[in-house]
Each structure stands twice: as C-alpha cells, then as structure tokens.
Write a structure and sequence with these properties.
The chain has about 230 residues and is an alpha/beta fold. The chain is about 35% helix and about 20% strand.
Length: about 230
C-alpha cells in the first residue's frame, strides 16, 4: 500500500521541495497551502504522516495539530517552523506534534524524520527491546547480544536504546544530538561518531555480523543481521 503524506505549507517554493523529496521516496504526497485547507484534509484521517508548518494563514499549524488530536486522530506529525527557541519547540510538542524541525533544514533530514515517524515503535512504553541478537532491558539497564553481556556506559546505553527503537531507519547525527544529548544545535564536533565507534566495538565483536552501520554523509542505521 502506498504511504500517503500530507504537507501543509504556505510557501510554494518550500512546499515544492518537500513534495519532490518525499515523492522521490515513493510516497503519495498531497499539498495544502492554507490552514483551512490543511485542517480539512488532516481531519479526514487518510494520511499515514503529516508535515505541518507552524505559521500558516487562516489557521496556524499548532491549532491544526490540537484539532486533530482532540478528534482522536493519531497520525504522526512533523512540525516545521522558523521558530527555533526551545520554548517554541516545547509548545509544538505539547500541542501534539511528534517531532519538530526548524527552518532552514536539509531535505535529507526531513525525509529521515518522516521515515522515523512512520516506523516508530507501536508501543513506546516497552521495557525490553529486541532487535536480532540484541536485547535491551530498560528497567535493569542491561544490554545483551546473544549470550554475551555488553559492558556499556550510560551514554552508550542511551544511544543503543535510540538506535534500537528506530531499527531499520537511518538516524542522522542531528537527531542523535537532539534526542540523546538534548542539544538544540549542532556543536560541530565528532562527538556522535566517537560514541558510536565505542558502542560499535562493544556490540559488534570480531567474527559477529555487524548490526550498526554507517550511512555515508547521513548518519547511522541499526538492523538485525540477515
């Protein structure tokens, strides 16, 4: 079944770039240029994911998100906005948005976040995560590969948890900075790569099929060995 995406964006140039990017990934993309049109389409429940601009004519983006949530529509929403302050991001998430991306953004970042929303775990409250030979116990804080206990540090545990929750998805360095380190900016360091390198050496021992892979120019992906 083709994945349907609703893009609510009043700037034609930005909308055209988003539609082209997501269409290139095989999604069926509909575009709404105003808040009223976007709200009418959003409440239909016909979409698997939506991107909604924060500042729209007629009805603002957060009002659309609040409206669909009050109507029981749980479609994942990526809020897009030129407002980059932490308080603005918090308001977007509290309104019911699932993720928040500030403008200007790289299209590859947007598509990665859309993929992540589409493939997020059905139940984020799971206390034991399993991907292939990996098991992560979130209560006992224990990581295991097969019969081998992994001796990982707290930050590495957080990294592994995020990668396992998004197994099979490409996660960018920016996503890891935001979700694991809680940075709202790119510190322009190799911090993520250093920690991923340490984690990979512990998870993927010599002779074992690797589960953590680098994606050139983008980020990383964790997937079960085939």
């Amino acid at each position: 079944m083709t994945t349907r995406v609703l893009v609510i964006e009043d700037d034609p140039e930005t909308a055209g770039e988003i539609v082209a990017e997501l269409s290139s990934h095989g999604f069926q993309v509909d575009w709404a240029a105003t808040g009223n049109d976007g709200l009418a389409r959003a409440v239909s429940g016909d979409y698997q994911v939506m991107t909604i601009d924060r500042l729209l004519p007629e009805v603002d983006g957060l009002s659309i998100v609040e409206n669909i949530r009050s109507n029981g529509i749980k479609t994942p929403v990526l809020v897009l906005s030129a407002l980059a302050e932490v308080d603005d991001r918090v308001r977007g998430l509290k309104a019911g948005g699932d993720d928040y991306l500030t403008k200007p953004f790289a299209l590859v970042e947007l598509s990665a976040r859309v993929d992540a929303l589409l493939r997020r775990p059905a139940d984020p409250r799971l206390t034991v995560l399993r991907v292939g030979p990996l098991t992560l116990d979130l209560i006992d804080r224990k990581a295991v590969r097969g019969a081998r206990r992994l001796d990982i540090l707290p930050r590495e545990f957080q990294l592994l948890e995020y990668l396992m929750r998004h197994s099979g998805e490409v996660v960018t360095r920016t996503m890891l900075f935001e979700e694991v380190w809680h940075y709202r900016f790119d510190p322009r360091t190799n911090l993520v790569d250093v920690h991923i390198g340490r984690l990979r050496r512990k998870v993927d021992s010599q002779g074992e099929s690797p589960v953590i892979h680098s994606v050139r120019g983008t980020g990383f992906i964790l997937r079960a060995p085939t």
